[in-house]
Amino acid sequence: MKAALSQRGRIPFFYKKSDKEFQLDPYERYESMVSRQSALHLADGLWDSYPMQAVLDFAAPFYPSSQVAHILEIGCGVGRWIATLAQTFPKADCWGIDYSYQMLKRAREFWVDQTDIHIDLSSKGFSNILNIKGHRLKNLNFGLAKASALPFNYESQDLIINSFLLDRLDDPARGLAEMYRVLRPKGKLILITPLNFSKAAHWKAYYPPIKLFQLLGQIGFEVLDWQEEILINEPLDFHGNSVRWKCIGFAAQRKD
């Protein structure tokens, strides 16, 4: 693994994120993004269940058969998915990578430092502040990096996971190629995406979904499972309003 370029608040930086990049990144905004993502991914009690459970359900059949594994989540946000795997595979070496320092800071303090968090969604109609107890997972690490330049060695990971990431990348094809690079032979990639692209060029390059399927084969992946109707309702407030995401999910294996 590459050495960190710097460190901030016990989060290693593998990418030199400039002041301008910090300012332009919406995921560095604590109140609007970190609080919202914490509520979505850590506060199941608000919603009576985990809103993103469909992601975990799709992925579970493709997890490693061995307890000893190297597992990487790219775009980990506040760390729910990779922390779930760190708990399921206590002997595994688990890493969560994200481009947002504020997300990583929340992930580390909650999942590694065992810091309790307090979520106030009174602006969304909830009357009580929710207190959630933190965890201390010793096999989990977090770091700041870009998906296009992962700090991991060639053929070092047994499993790579990500959700709601691909359509946010500047260069999705390069990101997928980088995931392929760090996967071991027969290593698996599990990816969930709503294909909610914001650039016309990306719509042209990766839509309809058959184009993405073909790209995986060109890179060197063998698709093990492909589903185009993974429906996720992301709750917004106490009244029950939500955003409905129609996602594609696939599990793929590095061929060689």
In the CATH hierarchy, what is the superfamily? Vaccinia Virus protein VP39
Total helical segments: 9
Calculate the terminal CA-CA distance, rounded to whole Å.
Answer: 21 Å
User: Oligomeric form of this entry?
Assistant: single chain
Give the helices and strands as they follow along the chain.
EEHHHHEHEHEEEEHEHHEE
What general outline do the C-alpha atoms trace? globular
Summing up helix and strand content along with how strands pair, one would put the structural category as: alpha/beta
Radius of gyration: 18 Å
Largest sheet: 7 strands, mixed
Taken together, the total number of domains comes to 1
What is the helix fraction of residues, given as a range? Answer: 25-40%
Low-pLDDT parts are none
Q: In which order are the strands of the major sheet placed?
A: 7-4-3-8-9-11-10
Instruction: Write the CATH fold name.
Output: Rossmann fold
